[in-house]
Amino acid sequence: MTGQPRQPVDVLVLRLDPAMPLPAYAHPGDAGCDLRTAEAAEIAPGERVVLPTGLSIALPDGYAAFVHPRSGLAARYGVALPNAPGTVDAGYRGEIKVIVTNLDPRETVRFERFDRIAQLVVQQVEKARFHEVEELPGSARASGGFGSTGGHAAARRDDPAQHSDFIAVGTDQNPDLRGQ
Ligand SMILES: O=c1ccn([C@H]2C[C@H](O)[C@@H](COP(=O)(O)OP(=O)(O)OP(=O)(O)O)O2)c(=O)[nH]1
């Protein structure tokens, strides 16, 4: 199925750090453009830092930008964003910052200036009008929440007979998941 290619939305960018490259998509189909750190940083295991990107943006009304983690950094080094995805409001004119944490239990992570640390996804967002009611309309899920459909590995240990609809992947068996 092919659709009409959507026109990109125009976003104004102010370089607070004149040497910082403008945000750019690495490939045509990418959802996020790279965000780079304007400062070198060392993050010890369990530590958290707030890194400047040297960029401010002005999004059109009705849009927001979301600061997402980079999967490669997460898989290789345990780098995570504790607030992921960070929300950049349309009205925000300050510097975009990235809150980075090192979840690796042993290794310190070092970033050099201009290293790619996160990605920014620009999206249209709806504004909701909330209407208070006495009762909500029915639904198939109703109030079933948090794990109500079952099927997670932790539950299987408690009662294997109840959860036979999945295969638990041990981190020691799958080399790609080691250290995560
Ligand atoms: O990863 C992030 C998340 C947010 N921001 C900026 C843009 C956003 O518009 C502003 C406020 O973020 P948020 O609303 O998530 O923070 P808050 O703690 O709820 O602060 P506030 O009370 O100012 O809304 O901080 C970033 O630069 N990076």
TrEMBL record:
The keyword Metal-binding applies. It is an enzyme of class 3 (hydrolase). InterPro entries: dUTPase, dUTPase-like, dUTPase-like_sf, dUTPase_trimeric. Its cofactor is Mg(2+). Substrate binds at R70, S71, G72, N83, T87, V88, D89. One of its GO terms (molecular function) is dUTP diphosphatase activity. Residues 136-180 are annotated as: Disordered. Residues 21-150 form the dUTPase-like domain. CDD domains: trimeric_dUTPase (cd07557). Its EC number is 3.6.1.23. HAMAP family: dUTPase_bact. Belongs to the dUTPase family. This is Deoxyuridine 5'-triphosphate nucleotidohydrolase. The lineage of its organism: Bacteria, Bacillati, Actinomycetota, Actinomycetes, Kitasatosporales. The gene is dut.
